[in-house]
Each structure stands twice: as C-alpha cells, then as structure tokens.
Amino acid sequence: MTTRRLFEALFAIALLVIAVRHTTDPDLWWHLRTGEYILANGIPRTDVFSFTVPDHRWVTHEWLTQVFMWLVFQAGGLTALMLVFALITALAFWLVYRRCSGRPYLAAFVVLLAAFAAAITWGARPQMFNLLLLGLFLSIVEGVRGGVLSERAFWWLPPLTALWANLHSGYLLGVVLLAVYVVGESVPRWQAGGPGLSRAAWRRLLLVTPLSFLAAVLNPNGYHLWIYPFETLGSGAMQSYIVEWRPPDFHVPIFWPFAALLALGVLALILSPRRPGLTDLLLFGGTAGAGLLSARHIPLFALAAAPIVCRYLEASLAGTRLRGLVKPHPAAKTARALTLLNVLLLVVALGAGLFWIAARVAENDEAIEDDFPVAAVDYLVSAGLEGARGYNSYEWGGYLIWRGFPVYIDGRADVYGDAFMHAYRRAYDARSDWRASLDDFAVQYVLLQEDSPLATVLEESGEWERTYKDSLAVVYERVE
C-alpha cells in the first residue's frame, strides 16, 4: 500500500467518523412515523398527527425518504439509521473530493474543512439526500467540465432530479446549480485560464436543465412541488422561530469552520494568478450569500465551494514552497517494510474509527434522554393522558408523535402555517393572550421545558397544577 493510498483511506475513514451523529434531530420521530403510515395507508394529503390542524394540507415532499428511514429502522433500529445516514453524508463529500484538483493532500484538507463547516446540519435527516444528490450533480458537471466524463453523462440529470423530487423538495437546488453552470459557461471569454464546457456540452446542458425541472413533476404531489419550495422560503414564521433558518452567529464556535472556508476561498480567488471564471464566481458568491443568510444553507456552500477553493489554491501555491501539497512527486516503488507499516497504520485507524463509532452508538440513548422528555412522557402514559389534548413544545412534538400522542404542534411548520405558528409562540412566550391558545383547543395538560415563560405563568396562575417535574421537562394539568 502506497502512502498516497493510505492517506486517502484515512481521509475516507475521517469523513465517515465525523458523520456519525446521535439521533437527536427533533423531526426524526415524525419522519419515522410517517414512513410507517405511508406503508400502511398510502401517502397522506392532510395532517394525520395533530388535533389542532387535522384538515390542513400536507405536502409530503419527503415521502420516499421517510419510507426508506422506516425500513432502515425496521432492519436495524436507531443504530442502523446512524450508520446509514453517516455513509450517505460521507459519500456526498467523497464525490466532491474526487472532482477536486490538488488531490490527495490539498483536496483532502479543503474537503475536510468543508465537511466541518457543513456538519452543523448532519444527522439522520432527509436533508442528507440533498447533500448526496447535490454532490452527485457537482461530480457529473465538474467531471464533464474537466474532461473526465463524456457530455452524455448529462442525460443522467433528469432522472436523478425525478428521484430527488421524491426524496426531498430540495431538488430545486440541483436545477439552480445547473442553471448557474449554463449562465456561467455562456460567456466564453470568462473561461480563460480555467476549465470550461465545450460548446457542444454547453448546448446539451442548456437542454438538460429545463428537462430536469420538468422531471421534478414526476412525484405524488405533481406540479405542486414546483411551488412548495418557494412557499417554505417565504414563511416568516419559519425564518423567525426555526434556529437553522437564521443567519450564522460567528460568536458561536460551530460556525468558525464556515468562516474559515469562506475566508480561504476569498483569499484563493484574490491571490490566484488564474483569473476566476464567471461560473466559479457565481457558484462561490451565490452559495456563500445563501449561507450567510441562513445557517441551513451552509452545507450547500461547503459542497459547491470545495472544488473552487481547491482550483484557485492550487494555482496560488504552484510556484511556492508548498507546491508539494498541490502536485506530490511521483511515488517510487514502495518498499516492503513501508507497505507493511502503511497497512498496520490503516488497521489501527480502522480500529480507532470503529471504537469511536461504537462509542457514539452506545451514547445514543443517553443523548435522546438529554434532549427529549422521555421520563415526562412515561409519566403521561402512566397518568392515562396519552389520548388527551396537550400543549407541547415545538421541539418535542415529533417525539410525542413517535410515542403515539396527538400533538398540538410539531416540526412540520409548513402544515401549521404562519398564523398558527405565531399564536403558538405567543402562548409559549406567555403574552397577554396565552390562555386563548389553550382554551380554544380544550387543552388538558401542558408539556414544556422547565424554564419556559409559559411554565412560569402556569405555576402562578392557580388554574393549572404541576404534576410532574424533572431537570428537563415539566407537566401541568388543568385544575377542574
């Protein structure tokens, strides 16, 4: 085994290890129940989990992912979900790495930085298919652009878009990506000094891009899925109340890798002797702007920016003492002793990686108990309240659905709508009309974080009795 092959193997192991996450995404639970429901009853068109908006339209744009998640869970429980989605995530970044210049060392450094920047949204979530498909789209287009793939590879994009549209409404990211390449490659003078599509390949991409958009209609929601992403982006309540829709706060360390990747990319574009191409400027600037507006979009920047940063860093370092990172010297025949040492190092790395993954799996139940009201829901079951109407925290609605409770609200913000979301939040913040949100739906119990404003008001109101409390959650029941 050569040192280069060892390095790439270690890089792949590192991607997989950092992609293994606890199953603590609040939406995981209702995704699983939805997958179960679809297999038993078909795709729902209206809400089936809440007692507050049972007739509201539900665009189940992630239906295929939810079925997939339920089948994975049935096969191997939460552990299987952790591992399968870690593989999906790692594969997305590996695909991008294979299209980066400066492999293995420079590309691995940049892609690992991109992975850490994107890791804020990782987990057993349908959005991971957005990363995988976006990585595949980038891999195909960059492969044709760099002469590695034939332009015929573009014909894979419409069927992949149709698949993507059934996995998640993020399919529009792929179409926008293709449109950026069409625009960027339409001005030949901007291609000087960098890779570019031939005129024939550009014309084929020009045809494939609208065909990909049209292919997205091949889903159970039909043309409604063309409109749905814009409805989500236009929701004021989602922008206000859902943390990952807010701009990144660079005082928080988890956003520092994003800042580092952004700064590195800007420096590479400025210092490179190669003139930046229009496509690269559009991709880098557009996805960076999206990431600065919403933390949810940082992974898109990480994937799209990695090949661009590598390309211009390679040009910047080519004439410096660090040129060995860009184009390592051709390896001589590896001595037998070095080969054995490399194999030993790989075995040690595999063992360490498996140990780390096993530790993460072993900690999963504890992580769930730290984030979700497991004991409080056990109390509700013992008190015979599993069928009662309860006001619950937004973050815990999915877990209540998992436990078989009808919910007041859960993570499907698009189902509830902005008006309901605002009313829920007014009650949670204990504003003057908080009673209306409880009385209008004949709420019998309240399950909230112990330090929430509404819990404080209920404690002092005399209208509600605290019947359960632990370090995470509190339950109040209406005094008859």
Structural class: mainly alpha
Q: Could you tell me the strand content as a percent range? A: under 5%
Average of pLDDT: 91
How far apart the termini lie comes to 75 Å
Helix content: 55-70%
Number of domains: 2
* General form: globular
Uncertain regions: pLDDT < 50 for 5+ in a row?
Answer: none
In what order do the strands lie side by side in the largest sheet? 1-2-4-3
So how many helices?
A: 21
Query: Would you count the extended β strands for me?
Result: 4
Query: What is the N-to-C order of secondary-structure elements (H for helix, E for strand)?
Result: HHHHHHHHHHHHHHHHHEHHHEHEE
Largest sheet composition? 4 strands, mixed
Rounded radius of gyration (Å)? 25 Å
Written description of the protein model:
This protein folds into 2 domains: about 5-325, no CATH class; about 370-480, no CATH class. The protein is built from 21 helices and 4 strands. The chain has helices spanning about 5-20, 30-40, 65-100, 105-120, 125-145, 155-165, 170-185, 200-215, 225-235, 235-240, 255-270, 280-295, 300-315, 325, 335-360, 365-370, 375-380, 395-400, 415-430, 435-440, 455-460; strands spanning about 390, 445-450, 465-470, 475-480. Helix 6 (about 155-165) packs parallel to helix 8 (about 200-215). The protein starts with a helix and ends with a strand.
